[in-house]
Amino acid sequence: LGENINSEYNEYFPCMTADGIFLLFTRLIPDERARTGNQEDFFISRFDGAVWMPAQPVGSPINTLHNEGAPTLSVDGNQLIFTACKGWNGYGPGREGYGRCDLFLSNRAGTSWSEPRNLGPPVNTSHWESQPSLASDGMTLYYVSNRSGGYNIWRVGKDPAGLWGDPEMLGERINTPGDESSVFIHPDNRTLYFSSDGHPGMGGMDIFLSRKDTAGNWSDPVNLGYPINTRFDENSLMVSADGTKAFFASDREGGGGGLDIYSFNLYKEIRPVPVTYVKGRVYDKETGLHLQARFRLSDLGSGSLAAESVSNPSTGEFLVCLNTQRRYALNVDKDGYLFYSEHFNLTGENPREDPFLMNIPLQPVRSGERTILKNVFFETDSYELLYDSRAELNRLVEFMKTNPRIKIEISGYTDDTGESGYNQLLSENRARSVYGYLLEQGVPPERLSFAGFGENYPVDTNKTEEGRANNRRTEFKITGTTDAQ
C-alpha cells in the first residue's frame, strides 16, 4: 500500500470501514522502555479517492505504553474492539483484565475515542481472547480463544438489551485439533476467512474460507491457494465490502521492511456476496443540529432484524450495510422525534451495487406533523396488507407505546390511474387496514383515526412509474394528545 501505510517496522492486522475510507492497523514500533524493545500501537489512514494519506497514531486513550493489537472496526467506524494483554511489555499490569489477553471496546464521538472498557465475561475469561471480527449487523462478534485447550474460533451474539450472550465454538468444520487464527467475517455476514494449520494446506498457517448457508451451517473450508498461500505463515486477511479486493500482511521481498500491508484482487471463486451501503447524517429538521439516532435494518423477506446501530453522537454520521439480492426496511428513530423510514430493493438481475448517500432529517413530535410509511405494502388494486409490511407497522406500534399520549390519523393515497371514485374508496380501505392492524396490536382506539384521500395531494408526478409509486402511499399524522380539549 506504499510508504504512507508501510514503514521499516512491522504493519499487520488491517481493518477498514465499509466505505473503504478509513484503514486502521497495528504497527510494532521501537520502545526502549519495553522488555522486548518494541510495543504495538494503532495507526489510521484516510483514503482521499486516489491515495492513502500518511498514517497517524490513533493516540490516547487507546494507544498506551502497553501493546494494543488485532483490531476490528464496526462498518461505520464508530466502534473499535481490540486486544490488550496483561504485563506483556514489562510496563506493569497493563489494562485490567480477566486473562492473559482480553477484548476491549472503545466508541467514537466525532474524532474522539472513549476510554476503552473490558468486554468482560462471558466474552473474556481467564484464558486468552484475541483477534476479534465484528459482523456488519453490529450484534455478532467472532474471535479467537484458547479456552477449550487449542486456539479456536468462537462466536458470541448480543441479546435485545445489548448484552453479550454465551459464546459458542464454530464447530469441527471450522475448528481443528490444530490452531485457528485471524478470523474475518465479511460484511455479507455469510463468508468467513480465517487462518489455520489444521486443515490441509501448503505449509504453516494458510488462509481458508467457509460460507454459511441459510440454515446457519458452515461449508467445508476452502484453501485460497497459491500465490495467496505459501509455505510460510499467512494471516490477517481482510476483504472489501464489494468483495473485489483483499488486504493482508506479508514480509515478502519488495516491501518497506518486516511485515507490510498489501492488497490484491480476489479471483471470482473466493469472493463473498457483494455488499453496498447507505451512508449520511441525521439531523434535526428545524435546527439542523446533528443527532444520535438508532438505526434498524429489517430483511423484508424474512422479517428478521438484519442490523442495528446508532449514528455518531457528535456528527450524526451513519453507515449501514446492504446485501445485494435483498429487500430492506430502514427505520431511524430517536426519542422526541417522528421516526423515519426508507425502502431499499436490491433484487433483480442487476441489483444496485453503488452506495446510497442520503441525509436524514428528523421532525420533532408535534401536532400536525406527518411521516410517510415507506414500507407498508398492499396487493395491486387491493387493501390486503402484505406480510412485508409487518416490520414497518411494528415500528409504528412501538412509536405509539413510546409516546403514550399522542393521537394519530392513518392516511391513504393513490395515484391518478383509474376512476377517482374507485381510488377514493381504495385509499380509505387501505388506511382502514393499517388502522385495524394497530388495534390488533393493542393501540387504544381513542388514539387512532383513519382517512382516505384518493389521488388528491400527490407528492410526485403521475407521469412516470416511479412518481406514481411515490404517490401510492400510507402516512400517519399527529392529530393531538389524548388529554387535549
Task: Characterise this structure.
- It is a single chain.
- This protein has 485 residues and is mainly beta.
- It is 8% helix and 37% strand.
- The protein has 3 helices and 32 strands.
- A hairpin with a 6-residue loop joins β11 and β12.
- 41% of the residues are buried.
- The mean pLDDT is 92.
Task: Briefly summarize what is shown.
With 485 residues, the protein is mostly beta strands.
Largest sheet: 5 strands, antiparallel
Beta-strand share of residues: 35-45%
**Low-confidence runs of at least 5 consecutive residues:** none
DSSP helix fraction: under 10%
Shape summary? elongated
Strand tally: 32
Coarse structural class? mainly beta
> Distance between termini?
67 Å
Put simply, the count of helices is 3
Radius of gyration: 25 Å
The mean pLDDT is: 92
How is the secondary structure organized here?
Elements: E1 10-16, E2 22-30, E3 38-46, E4 56-57, E5 68-73, E6 79-85, E7 101-109, E8 112-113, E9 117-118, E10 129-134, E11 140-145, E12 152-157, E13 168-169, E14 180-185, E15 191-196, E16 206-211, E17 222-223, E18 235-239, E19 245-250, E20 260-265, E21 275-284, E22 294-299, E23 305-310, E24 317-323, E25 327-333, E26 340-345, E27 356-357, E28 360-362, E29 370-372, H1 390-402, E30 406-412, H2 420-440, E31 448-452, H3 465-471, E32 474-481
Parallel strand pairs: 21-27, 21-28, 30-31
Antiparallel strand pairs: 1-2, 2-3, 3-4, 5-6, 6-7, 7-8, 7-9, 10-11, 11-12, 12-13, 14-15, 15-16, 16-17, 18-19, 19-20, 21-24, 22-23, 22-25, 25-26, 29-32, 30-32
